[in-house]
Design brief:
565 residues; alpha+beta; Double Stranded RNA Binding Domain; five-stranded mixed beta sheet; three-stranded antiparallel beta sheet; 8 helices; 24 strands; 20% strand
Length: 565
Amino acid sequence: MAEKRKPLLGFVGKLPSGTTSGNSGNTRCPLCMGLFKAPRLLPCLHTVCTNCLEQLEPFSVVDIRGGDSDTSSEGSVFQELKPRTLQPQIGILCPVCDAQVDLPMGGVKALTIDHLAMNDVMLESLRGEGQGLVCDLCSDREVEKKCQTCKANLCHFCCQAHRRQKKTTYHAMVDLKDLKGYSQIGKPIPCPAHPAEELRLFCELCDQPVCRDCMVEGHREHPCDLASNVVHKHGDSVRELLKGTQPHVEALEKALAQIKGTNHALQERVEAVAADVRSFSEGYIKAIEEHRDKLLKQLEDIRIQKENSLQLQKAQLEQLLADMRTGVEFTEHLLTSGSDLEILITKGVVMERLTKLNKVAYSARPGVNEKITFSPKEKAGLCRGYEVYGAINLHRAREKQTASFTVICKDAAGESMGRGGENIQVAVVPKDKKDSPVQTMVHDNKDGTYYVSYTPKEPGIYTVFVCVKEQHVQGSPFTVTVRKRHRSHPGVFHCCTFCSSGGQKTARCACGGTMPGGYLGCGHGHKGHPGRPHWSCCGKFTEKSECAWAGGQSAARSVLRTVAL
């Protein structure tokens, strides 16, 4: 039984109805965008017109080859380090994929002709999608028929002449319109070495198509056979290689699809997160703006309260000053210009008035101070669900030191009450509420003002509640920041240890400076001296400041044996 032959790689014959072979992408040059003219197949399997390839700018490629070897390493021009000769070679870049193309000795025209593309161009022309075909013999008129024997495209005139010749009288002619459904109608492929002969044979030894003249000249002893007899064997080799390549194509397509999907998911995720960021930021901005407005409103209320208190105290002092001046001026005028009898008559009224004025109690200091601070790092609770920071503090206090403030009571008209007796309730509570409230003392000054004092035990943020008749006063509750107890400097504020200690070698200084000659302290112009006056105990440069040294005063004096000059 004869072995069943496998189908050819190419399909020769009529296509099923409604199908076409190829498309415009197989017939158009990627450079000139016109139908292929003498197309050349590049090693990267892209096809370009010969004329277009010749117009590309070439470049030199240095190919390092062995003197006795004709082979080169694929993918790299460098071989193992043996004596080599530099052979400059001309190359071009594929206009489609930028792959490097090393041109053979014959240049662009020595590249492989893409006959499949030429066949596609002819099919497209037959379908009326391209330009009309020109007669192969006269190269002047449009083609009407095709000789099936010699594969020539002929016009009407050349077809008649073809039939009149004795050798071609019996050649079968076919109208071109009847060939529109065929997949291959290409012309015979002539031998590059012998243009008059058609390539019909294949040399197995040289692995290339040959003609009859080639068999006689260069392939006499080579195993050759008709191309139609060996195409199946070589087709199987190509088919196996194609079979191994196709899974890579599918894998790459799948990988690219995954990348595309991941990129799409990434874009969606970025947009979602960006929307969350914008929403959060807008909400946070609104919360900060609302908190800002509250702080500014609180600050304005404090300003109004303090200004009202100052204006009230100012008015009271101005009235008292006017009364005092009137009494002084009248009394001085009486004593300098009045007669003895006038002085004695008026004495009682003047003394009563001056006595009353001298008994009026007043404060030489303002009833309120300007101590209003802003603590940007202090937590201020939640606003619109966001944690906000920043608080207005009326005054500061020190741990284990008595702090005080004054409460001024006014009537409905805004005037000072002028009397005491009101129920003033004050509470000073740590903001974290871990400790118990601080004990407070309220002293009634009997003039509508109340002196409040308290002694916080620990540093931190405290909330002060002030109520009159169980009603919060304006601005209550207030925030007070209690800092650590003020530490005085146990050392001396000096220019250097040498001067302040009277030249003692054992005297030290917190600046870390030393002097040669066994001195343990600092001196002008010597190593470590800060170059300006400073405290010997902690090194601070400000004379009126809090000591930053953590040790006790007795310990500091034992270490810093200095004397004040």
